[in-house]
Amino acid sequence: YCPAQALILLLEPLQFLELFCAHSAVLLLPAIIGLFSHTDLSDRIYPGHALPHQDFNLPQLHDNLFRLGSLNGHLRSSAFLIIGADHFIGGRSGLDQTPSGLAGEIGYAGLTGLTFGDTGSSLSVAYWSQTILSGRGGIVVGRIDPGDYTDILGYVNPRTGFQNYVVNYNPVLTVPDPGFGIGGGAYVTDQVYVLGMASDANSSLTEVDWFPGGSEFYKYAEIGWTPAKNQRYLTNIHVGAYHIDARAAKGLDESYGVVLSANHTFKNDLMVFGRLGWSNGTDPIAKRGATAGLIWRPGFYDDLIGVAATWADPVAAGLKDQTTVEAFYRFDLADNVAITASVQHLNNPGFNTSDPWLLGLRLRFNL
């Protein structure tokens, strides 16, 4: 890798076309947008202005397993075909590298610019979503992104919030790219839900293949609690477990682990969150991990502030414990224009004797 530089500037280009979005961005039918628009909690904690329903939205994708939204007070129960396409044009840093590829240049065990790369166009998701159990749950079948349904909390949105992988996701997880699979979820009571999914362990974002490695799967299951169905992304606690089979062609052994995650929202303007995780295997970033942070709306239009820190015990032998700290401020200039400034500090990055600082600047323009 190249020697670390003290400050590295990341710049996201203008986003002009809605179809060309982040990894797993979904092209939703109008009925879905109206039905689940309230779940865009990581973009703004309560309904308001600025960059609304079209944003990259893991909570919204996650809701495809439940189909429990309401429209004018009536439950909607139906089936939908969901198709998503990605186009990665990335940004450039002082190392002439995309943000998603920067980690390898500075010796960091992780990803510093999640979703920003130069992989070109791809079909991210294409699946059928069906309501079950009289509207208390749902299933998805087709080309799915397992990351959309694995250990999701309401603050996760790499387009509008935190960028570092280990802040958005638990570092003990090893989640494959989009591929063919099936998932299902349902509410057992009005407050307790369960979900599970399985997908191809050898899938690829840039290639659409039918289980190229044979019967090698990624599996995830979760049970969670929320005070009310419409608060599932505002206040939630869940336990999840995953297992990924050994992948013979890639020479990777099986890995498995357990996660515990929770978040709580105070008065609709402050969300605190935390994660714990443990794993066994050589595929994940970390054997153990812990994350804590918050997002806060200071009351200026739809501005958003976020601060988080993640501790990770790397899987690679001989590496010291790694700590990642990230903070951002999203300044909304208008309903469709926002500037997000961020800073990351990487302590003991793994393969680097220095502790780099990264500065980020994202300009977003939605049509």
Structural account:
6% of the residues lie in helices and 42% in strands. The chain is mainly beta and 367 residues long. A hairpin with a 2-residue loop joins strand 2 and strand 3 (74-75). The model is unreliable at 1-61, 67-77 and 86-94 (pLDDT under 50).
Radius of gyration: 19 Å
What share of the residues does DSSP label as strand, in percent? 35-45%
**Rough outline:** globular
Q: What structural class do the secondary elements suggest? A: mainly beta
Tell me the major beta sheet: 15 strands, mixed
Give the beta-strand count.
17
Summarize model confidence as the mean pLDDT. 75
Instruction: Give me the strand/helix succession.
Output: EHHEEEHEEHEEEEEEEEEEE
Q: Kindly state the percentage of residues in helix.
A: under 10%
Residue windows where pLDDT falls under 50 for at least 5 positions: 1-61, 67-77, 86-94
Major sheet: arrangement of strands: 1-17-16-15-14-13-12-11-10-9-8-7-6-5-4
Discrete helix count: 4
Distance between the termini: 39 Å
